[in-house]
Design brief:
Flagellar_basal_body_rod_CS; 2 helices; Flagellar hook-basal body complex protein; elongated; 23 strands; single chain; two-stranded antiparallel ribbon; alpha+beta; bacterial flagellum
């Protein structure tokens, strides 16, 4: 009885975690370049059910009656990196990546470092640098010096070809620092639509569309359907917990009356 109670509770916890993931996906339907997450669960190892009722020569004998599953637990959250729809914006500082790849941005401050994003909704800040919506600097290679640095636009006009080669007022200036990774599962979401990753692949042939943005890859109909199914599963586990609680309560009360 107690084991089945824990099984149902574990089911509720798993469904609640799935609900959180789905809610976050829905909240980011309009977030540029957002990649939806999926939560996966796995079963606990089955436990053996044993009986010691049989006694031989005064010694209880173990009898295996079978196995019992203790339900599910949260295993991992995995990101779907399928590309989203690309739409034209007509804005020169907007960029979208076709297929694989990421933009590189630098977050300033103590222990500043590079992060990676699919969100190409950039703008020029007050100091003339190209930045993302969080103020992180978009990185590129200066074609004149060969150094990786923050892209400085000033008051110039940006144009770009399909490989991220940026010209300012018609003069070649930078190449966007576009990278890829062998294993996308190694990437970790760190907030602000950014990823942290190790050993980025430099020089990959990544195709970019200027004056365009990539939409979120979350399908709202699928997400809502999954949410409804998750809610029904949660409610089913909740009913089981309530039923077990009532049964245990009744048993305790009846035993007390008999005593």
């Amino acid at each position: 009885m107690v084991r089945s109670f824990y099984t149902a509770v574990n089911g509720m916890l798993t469904q609640a975690a799935k609900q959180d993931v789905i809610s976050n996906n829905l909240a980011n339907i309009d977030t540029v370049g957002f990649k939806g997450d999926g939560l996966y669960s796995r079963s606990f190892n089955d436990v053996y059910i044993q009986d010691y009722a049989k006694v031989v020569n005064g010694i209880p004998q173990k009898t295996l009656l079978g196995t019992l599953s203790l339900g599910q637990q949260v295993d991992e959250t995995s990101t779907d990196f399928t590309g989203g729809e690309i739409s034209s914006t007509g804005k020169s500082t907007d960029f979208a990546i076709e297929g694989r790849g990421f933009f590189t941005v630098y977050r300033d401050g103590v222990g500043g470092k590079n992060y990676y994003t699919r969100d190409g909704h950039f703008h020029v800040n007050i100091d003339g640098y190209l930045v993302d919506d969080s103020g992180d600097y978009v990185m590129g290679k200066n074609v004149n010096t060969g150094s990786d640095e923050r892209i400085k636009v000033g008051n110039g006009k940006i144009t770009s070809d399909s490989y991220g080669n940026i010209s300012i007022d018609g003069a070649a200036a930078y190449k966007l620092d576009l990278v890829d990774f062998n294993d996308y599962n190694s990437l970790k979401k760190v907030g602000d639509n950014l990823y942290d990753g190790q050993n980025p692949i430099q020089g990959a042939q990544i195709v970019v569309q200027n004056q365009c943005l990539e939409k979120s890859n979350v399908n709202p109909l699928t997400a809502i359907t999954n949410m409804m199914a998750t809610m029904r599963n949660f409610e089913s586990d909740q009913k089981v917990v309530k039923s077990i609680d009532e049964t245990v309560g009744k048993t305790v009360n009846d035993v007390g009356k008999v005593g």
